[in-house]
Amino acid sequence: MDTITLWQFAILAAASALVGFSKTAVSGANTVSLAVFAAVLPARESTGVLLPILIAGDLIAVLVYRRHAHWPTLLRLFPAVAGGVVAGAVFMLWADDEAVRTSIGAILLLMAGVTLWRRRTPPEPEPEPEPGTEPEAGAASRGGRIKARSYGVLGGFTTMVANAGGPVMSLYLLSAGFRKLGFLGTSAWFFLIVNTSKVPFSVGLGLIDLRSLLLDAALVLFVVPGAWLGRRCVDRINQRLFDQLVIWATVLGGLQLLLR
User: Fold this and answer.
1) Do 170 and 28 touch, CB atoms closer than 8 A?
2) Given a cut of 90, is residue 150 above it in pLDDT?
3) Residue 106 contacts by C-beta under 8 Å, 6 or more apart in sequence?
4) Where are the transmembrane segments (predicted)?
5) Pair 30, 22: CB distance under 8 Å
6) How far is the C-alpha of 62 from the C-alpha of 53, rounded, in Å?
7) Contact present, 162 and 99 (Cβ < 8 Å)
8) Are residues 100 and 47 in contact, defined by beta-carbon separation less than 8 angstroms?
9) How far is CA 89 from the centre of its chain?
10) Which pick of 162, 166, 202, 252 has the fewest CB atoms within 10 Å?
11) Rounded to whole angstroms, how far apart are CA atoms 237 and 243?
């Protein structure tokens, strides 16, 4: 990892603040952050630098929304996610910087495309599930299990390769009928557990080392004000406009990585 300039550090600091904001306000907005990190740093190393920052944001989100998680949904997802993480780790064993950069760009464009397609037929709003109840009708059915496994494997792979599991998880939770607080609480616990489980893989692959941790120590400070701002804005934000900005920023970030 080369020495970064003051201007590059400022860009990474803003992206770190956006991580905090996304964890407490708009899940999935940190796809912009991973595009920024992959553009400023070598793409492969950027995933290791970003991971501790994401975990810091996850910790804050769990503290804020811990009571709103729906554990049956999480337990249904985790086995498939584990398989996806292992597959992603195997991919990272042989992938060079160009392959990782191309993969991140393609994943970002794919997730943005799926999100745009799904928004053409938005789901009918459903009551937020009470603790201990299933949010998705028929979730225990064969179709529900297949859907959970499909999203879980894709989410595990994308989060290991590019820290880009947010859009996959968002699509799954939206299709399951989660409302805002249940959505944020379930996402918070999901990513805290999954991102923490990725640390040994990232260390073993050489993605996290002393130099990356020193940079993280400086950048993680910016996660806190971002999370505070997100918590203040979550009930006031124009969700539709912000989601559109995030989607198109993600598209631009993905194109930048592919054409770099």
Assistant:
1) yes
2) no
3) 254, 258
4) 48-65, 77-94, 151-175, 181-201, 213-229
5) yes
6) 14
7) no
8) yes
9) 17
10) 252
11) 10
In whole angstroms, what is the distance from residue 45 CA to residue 202 CA? Answer: 10
Q: What is the pLDDT of residues 89-101, one digit of tens each?
A: 999 888 887 888 7
pLDDT tens-digit map of 3-54:
889 999 999 999 999 999 989 887 767 888 988 998 899 988 999 999 999 9
Confidence of residue 184 (pLDDT cuts 50, 70, 90): confident
Q: Name the average pLDDT for the chain.
A: 83
Q: Which amino acid is at 18?
A: L
Q: What's the whole-model pTM score? A: 0.82
Describe the crossing of helices 43-65 and 223-233 by its angle, rounded to 10 degrees.
50
Q: Which residue has the higher pLDDT, 115 or 32?
A: 32
End-to-end CA distance of the chain: 18
Q: Alpha-carbon distance 161 to 86, whole Å? A: 10
**What is the chain's alpha carbon radius of gyration, rounded to the nearest angstrom?**
17
CB 160 within 8 A of CB 123: no
Q: Which two tokens stand for residue 65?
A: 């929304």
How crowded is the C-beta side of 179, counted as CA atoms within 13 Å? 10
Rounded distance, CA 194 to CA 197, Å?
Answer: 5
92, 205 contact by CB (below 8 A): yes
Cα separation, 16 vs 226, whole angstroms = 8
| Contacting residues for 81 by C-beta, under 8 A, at least 6 apart | 152, 153, 155, 156, 159, 194
Residue 60 falls in which region: left (phi positive, over 0), alpha (psi -120 to 50) or beta: alpha
Q: Name the residue among 217, 219, 88 with its Cα closest to residue 152.
A: 88
